Amino acid sequence: MAIQRMDHVGVVVDDLKAAIAFFVELGMELEGQAPIEGRWVDRVAGLEGVRVDIAMMRTADGHGRLELTKFYTPTAVAAEPENAPGNTLGLRSVMFAVDDLDATVAGLRARGAELVGEVVRYQDSYRLCYVRGPEGIIVALAEQLS
User: Fold this and answer.
1) E-state strands within the chain
2) Do 63 and 97 share a domain, yes or no?
3) What pLDDT score does 145 carry?
4) 11-34, pLDDT tens digit by residue?
């Protein structure tokens, strides 16, 4: 028995429209959007009365996917402090390879994102940074150097 692939990463958000716009600005494509509810989702999630909207985002190469979920019921809860630092336990960031780090950061800043630290160079291999987007999501960005 072995994993076939990683299918997607799920992120619970409060403002689905803003989260979609953020990831579209990053270069992802909206694959689809749908309301989800019913006994089956209650059973799989271990919750009662689940009613959500989801948006499935896809990377341009078609290999990476991100599921954005807006809970209407039950109400989403905060499991950590708002804008948790990078050393907080749990899933902390999602990394994307980009072709132009400066242009990507500028586009995301126009959507309200902020740099967590600085843009840095790692040896002669990459330029890297962390950006905090909607709902405090930390997105890591990496531009490979020639």
Assistant:
1) 9-13, 29-37, 51-58, 65-73, 93-97, 114-115, 120-122, 126-132, 138-144
2) no
3) 94
4) 999 999 999 999 999 999 999 999
